[in-house]
Specification:
126 residues, alpha+beta, Ribosomal Protein S8, Chain: A, domain 1, Dna Ligase, domain 1, 2 domains, five-stranded antiparallel β-sheet, 8 strands
């Protein structure tokens, strides 16, 4: 596994395709932050940290009918995509969500434009 964020998005996509209630993702701070943003936006259910130091995981409860119809990793390890605050656009009109890694932490594209900070575009969710 070379890209853990892509792995996380694929796990969520695959779990929704076969109608699982929860998905278990290996823990990292950035993946937990992305999951918390998805929870805050109402795209997934409850997000919980489980386990201790070595075997720490993130349990994500999925919502049905699903609010997520597509997930796309924008900035990849081989090609990073950066945008200024004025260049950050929404995805699929105003219905999508863009997650941006800024100097102030991970936030949605709308929050980044409001705070006038740019950064690396992590993924798009619609």
């Amino acid at each position: 596994m070379t890209d853990p964020i892509t792995d996380m998005l694929n796990r969520i996509r695959n779990a929704q395709a076969v109608s699982h209630k929860t998905v278990v993702i290996p823990y990292s701070n950035i993946k937990y932050s992305i999951a918390r943003i998805l929870e805050k936006q109402g795209l997934v259910g409850v997000v919980e940290k489980k386990g201790r130091t070595i075997k720490k995981t993130i349990d994500v409860t999925l919502k049905y009918p699903s609010e997520i119809s597509g997930l796309k990793r924008v900035s990849k390890p081989g090609q990073r995509i950066y945008a200024g605050s004025k260049e950050i656009k929404g995805t699929k009109g105003k219905y999508g969500l863009v997650i941006v890694s800024t100097p102030k932490g991970l936030m949605t594209g709308k929050e980044a434009r409001r705070n006038k900070v740019g950064g690396e575009i992590i993924c798009e969710i619609w």
